[in-house]
Structures are given as structure tokens and as C-alpha cells.
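HOLO CASE FILE
Compound: inosinic acid
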Amino acid sequence: MKKVIFVTNNPNKLREVRQMTNGIDLVSLADCGITEDIPETSETIEGNSLQKAHYVYDRLSTDCFADDTGLEVEALGGEPGVRSARYAGESKCSEDNITLLLEKLEGCDNRRARFRTVIALIWEGREHLFEGIVEGTITRERHGDGGFGYDAVFMPDGYDITFAQMDAASKNAISHRGRAIAKLVDFLGKN
Ligand code: IMP
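Model generated. C-alpha cells follow.
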């Protein structure tokens, strides 16, 4: 079975990706003995995912991948983007992030936004990037209590509910991360 390290400390992400990667031995950071926080200091989503993947590859020389996601809001010139987790401060508080986002969009009719995930895979020493995007709008108020992050204010195109009102399987089927992972899984199945 192919062995690949998923560079994440987030057990929810690990579970989600394991459900989509049958036939691949997906190894966590904890399994590899890496417990420190991995630096994410790039100014781009691509740069952060590559930085995280290289951090592990440089130490273990094992095939690995990392993901990075941002919410890109059109009326805010692509903000919060690479700063999505820390938009309202270093505490990475989702409630505060949503409050700040809604404040910035107050009175703004252009609510267009998208989530964008980039997965950086280092496979046999070479870099491969896989992108997943879901387009939608930012609602004027919070709706739903599922999910995490900005889910309560993100309504994907073609739906009249937010990600926070969807069950996990429905969200994964159309989400940015789900789409990027599907491309990764396709690659791993062929290589
Ligand atoms: P990460 O790169 O996956 O850690 O994502 C960075 C930030 O983007 C998270 O802290 C969340 O605020 C936000 N985010 C990422 N994915 C999602 C999602 O599926 N729903 C809502 N917010 C998300």
C-alpha cells in the first residue's frame, strides 16, 4: 500500500481525508513524531502549503502533502485570503473572524466569495499542486451551527443554505477541500 504523510495536526481533517483515500496508507504527523507547530509564513496559499510539505519532506524524505485554504471575498480584494484563520487576531477565533467579516461587508451588496484550497504534494521528490474552489456568497447573518470557520456565513452557489446548515457528506461533495482532495486521490491512483 502506498504510504503518504498528511501534514496536519487537525484530527477532523485527517478523518475527512482518510474517508476519501481508500488504498492509501495515510500517516499523520503524530505517527511520525512531529509534534511542533509547522511554520506558515508565506504571503500566499500556495506558498504556505508548499512550506508545510517541504518542512516534513526535508526531515523525513517521505512522500507527503499539506493543504492550505483561504476565503477570498471579491469586494475586499481577496481578503481575508491567506490570513483567514487569523483575520481578527492571533487567537484564531472563528466567531471574531465572522464578526469582522460581516462588519467589513456592512452595506455592501457585492457578497461574492470563494473558498480556495491548495494541496502541495511532494511525490518522489517532485512538487505537485492541486487546487479546489467553491464559489458562493457571504450571507448578511449567521445561519446554522454545523461545520467550522466561516461556514455559518458562506452559501455555495446553487444552494439556499450555508455550509453550516449542510451535513458533512453534502459539504465534502462540493467543497474546496473535497475538490482538491479528489484531484490528489486521482493522482495517487495513477502514480
Ligand atoms: P486551513 O488552511 O485549512 O487551516 O484554513 C484556514 C482558515 O480558513 C481556517 O482557520 C478557517 O477559518 C477557514 N476555512 C478553511 N476551510 C474552511 C471551511 O471548510 N469552512 C469554513 N471555513 C474554512
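CASE NOTES: Helices lie at 11-20, 45-60, 94-104, 168-174, 176-190. The chain has a mean pLDDT of 94.
CLOSED: yes
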